[in-house]
Write a structure and sequence with these properties.
It is a single chain. This protein has 417 residues and is of the alpha+beta class. The chain folds into 2 domains: 6-59 and 103-254 and 401-414, no CATH class; 66-97 and 259-394, no CATH class. It is built from 9 helices and 20 strands. It has helices at 11-15, 75-84, 86-91, 117-123, 246-249, 273-276, 301-314, 332-345, 357-360, and strands at residues 6-8, 36-51, 62-63, 66-69, 94-95, 99-100, 110-114, 126-131, 141-155, 158-176, 182-191, 203-215, 218-229, 251-254, 259-260, 282-285, 361-362, 370-371, 391-394, 399-414. A hairpin with a 7-residue loop joins strand 17 and strand 18 (370-371). Helix 7 crosses helix 8 (332-345).
């Protein structure tokens, strides 16, 4: 049975394993070269998740992931947050890019290429497939797959990765379609709970081929398998099963994959699933959707203070901010000019949180003020006026209903006992 909160990342890997050849040979093997024991050797995976609001719910709703300032274990920063008070701190709370029906979950589609046994081992994947022969051409025969694989788990709307053991069995039919018509190169699988098959999804349109390649000077037999997992898609499920269960088949994504590390590396760019789905709930935030190129698209302390200053100066009854740059509107560039003029006059102006204007705008060239980019350092309450990228934590997990399609190309080497 498919489980709502536990979706196997490499379900498709295992599932694709189960294809067979078709020709009888002189030794009486009905399903040909595919029969035997196979060890996973390489994998190319395309992983798609698209927001899909279930029927009966508001199709225009948006899913927002709120991020809050976090001290990240720094006592000085925690003390600073306490000193400025909740009102200012909550002002730094923001929502990442909102997602809605039909949008890709950020970080998807995702392509993973594990082209060697060493790369598979780095993911914790080690799978062995046993394919038994059929008693008669066109009839079902038994497959069994064992080993370890990474599983994506959702708990409290947070995504984590664990490496679990798998033992799964069922029946396969090769070179025939679902209606029983002959179709060379086709492979179908039906997991059988009575045989221990409770992990892999069914599929009926896999393809396979058996060939050879040279490895370490030795020629070895190789089984290639392509396969698409469609049972987590509320329209395409009909290709593999008779009915859709919203409770059992809907894939829920714990959406908190927005953070990057202190060096600016975005987690979703890393092929390691333990990084793609970090167990931690926080980090630094960089996104071009922030529209703050002057701060390298990072959510920094100076960037936040620039907004606070703009709002405060616009509302200042005695000295309201005006269109200083002459573009017909009052915005951030006008606030930069205001800070610059204050610096040139020696006014000693500060932001609402006390950061000197002189720290935020470089006025060394009177004709060309420059915004100071503080994204190269990490913010600490020990020296808040120095700015820096801020650490954020997700306020709470965000559960997003999605349609999932998993497309796999894999190779298996003949396994010698």
């Amino acid at each position: 049975m498919k489980r709502l909160l536990s979706k196997v990342l490499f379900l498709s890997i295992s599932a694709t394993l189960l294809f067979t050849a078709c020709e009888d040979d002189d030794e009486g093997v009905v399903n040909g070269d595919i029969v035997g024991s196979w060890e996973l050797e390489s994998l190319n995976l395309l992983y798609e998740r698209v927001v899909s609001v279930p029927a009966g719910e508001d199709q225009n709703q948006e899913y927002k992931n709120y991020l809050d300032w976090d001290a990240n274990g720094d006592a000085a920063t925690a003390a600073y947050f306490q000193a400025i008070g909740d009102a200012a701190r909550l002002g730094a709370t923001f929502s990442t890019v909102d997602i809605k029906n039909g949008d890709n979950i950020p970080g998807f589609p995702r392509t993973t290429a594990l082209t060697s046994p060493a790369a598979l081992a780095g993911f914790g994947v080690s799978l062995l497939l046993q394919i038994d022969d059929a008693a008669k051409r066109g009839e079902g025969a038994t497959y069994k797959i064992t080993g370890t694989y990474p599983t994506i788990r959702q708990a409290d709307c947070q995504t984590t990765i664990t490496v679990a053991a798998i033992t799964d069995q069922g029946l396969y039919v090769s070179d025939f379609d679902r209606a029983g018509a002959e179709k060379p190169g086709n492979f179908m699988i039906t997991p059988d709970p009575t045989l221990g098959g409770a992990v892999l999804p069914p599929f009926y349109t896999g393809t396979y081929s058996v060939g050879e390649h040279v490895h370490d000077g030795e020629t070895e037999k190789v089984l290639s398998i392509d396969y698409t997992d469609e049972d987590g898609h509320d329209v395409r499920y009909a290709n593999v099963q008779d009915s859709w269960s919203e409770a059992d088949d809907r894939v829920i994504t714990g959406y908190n994959l927005q953070f990057n590390d202190a060096d600016g590396n975005i987690a979703t760019a890393d092929p390691n699933p333990a990084v793609l789905n970090p167990a931690y709930k926080g980090g630094y935030f960089r996104s071009e959707d922030l529209l703050n190129s002057n701060y390298s698209y990072q959510m920094t302390f100076y960037f936040y203070n620039a907004g606070l200053s703009l709002n405060a100066q616009v509302a200042d009854a005695k000295n309201p901010l005006t269109d200083l740059d002459g573009d017909g509107s009052v915005g951030v560039t006008d606030m930069v000019m205001f800070m610059h003029y204050d610096n040139l006059a020696g006014g000693g102006g500060v932001t609402p949180l006390g950061v000197p204007f002189a720290n935020m705008v470089d006025s060394s060239d009177p004709a060309a003020p420059k915004i100071v980019d503080d994204s190269g350092t990490v913010f600490s309450g020990a020296n808040p006026n120095a700015g820096g990228k801020m650490y954020f934590a997700t306020r709470e997990g965000l559960c997003v209903p999605t349609n999932e399609i998993l497309t796999v190309e894999s190779e298996w080497a003949a396994h010698e006992e």
